[in-house]
Write a structure and sequence with these properties.
By secondary structure, the protein is an alpha/beta fold. About 35% of the residues lie in helices and about 15% in strands. The strands form two sheets. Strands 1-9-6-2-5-3-4 form a seven-stranded mixed beta sheet, sandwiched between helices. A two-stranded antiparallel sheet has the order 7-8. Helix 6 crosses helix 8.
């Protein structure tokens, strides 16, 4: 496996984080072959815990790629921390502002350079009480349309044992079992060259999220709920995007 050429601060991050994660987790990694290569790739994990970025970064790095996460732009303005994040080639995102287009340009540039960009399509930790995937946001789909880069789904189960968001509880014990599985790129060819309308982006996003949901079901078992989003609809009514399928 060819390792990416890393700068000083990237090597520093590896030395700081990887030994901790090696002791803290007992890992089952599968599907790394879907991440290997030199071209740009959009990695879309499910989001179940504040520990997800550490686990995902460990998995992507072990696959031979350098993970480039999106982060709130405000974090990049924090003294020292923001400077290190920039040096580690992480990407600030301006949300809900006119500067959001600038963030998209940075993502496109990272993919053009062959980067492995990690986007949580749900935008935040899932609000499903049993941590199943919820309705996704359209950022990953928009980026895929703009670049043609493959979208690789990554299903994770186990980071919630490190930090359980439902109880806000950190588990410091070592050897916590975590499973991470990367699948083949999501088939989005039917939308190749399409105009990025709201309907197109939502259809692509639902396809990505349904793949993630199915992969997670294979890891953890059980019966997942349908994807849904909170709206101003009557209480208890849920949007079921897969009903038409």
């Amino acid at each position: 496996m060819t390792r990416p050429r890393l700068g000083f601060w990237q090597r520093f991050a590896v030395v700081l984080v990887k030994p901790v994660m090696t002791v803290w987790t007992r890992r089952t990694w599968r599907g790394m072959e879907h991440l290997r290569g030199d071209g740009g790739v959009i990695i879309v994990p499910n989001h179940i815990s504040h520990a997800d970025p550490l686990v995902a970064a460990h998995f992507v790095y072990d696959s031979g790629r350098w993970p480039q996460f999106l982060g709130k732009a405000s974090v990049f303005r924090v003294p020292v921390i923001g400077w290190i994040l920039h040096r580690c080639r992480q990407i600030p995102v301006e949300r809900n502002t006119v500067d959001a287009v600038r963030s998209l340009d940075q993502l496109v540039a990272a993919l053009d350079r062959g980067g492995a960009v990690v986007i949580y399509p749900e935008g935040t930790i899932t609000r499903e009480p049993d941590l199943w995937p919820m309705k996704g946001k359209t950022g990953a789909a928009r980026l895929a349309l703009a670049t043609g880069a493959p979208v690789v789904p990554v299903a994770m189960w186990g980071p919630e044992r490190i930090f359980d968001p439902r109880r806000s509880r950190l588990n410091p014990r070592p050897r916590i079992p975590v499973t991470v599985v990367a699948g083949p790129p999501v088939d989005l060819d039917r939308w190749s060259g399409a105009t990025p309308t709201k309907a197109v982006l939502e259809e692509m996003t639902d396809t990505i999220m349904l793949r993630l949901r199915d992969m997670l079901t294979e890891i953890r078992g059980g019966t997942p709920p349908p994807l849904w989003e909170r709206t101003a609809r009557p209480v208890g009514e849920r949007r079921r995007p897969e009903a038409a399928a």
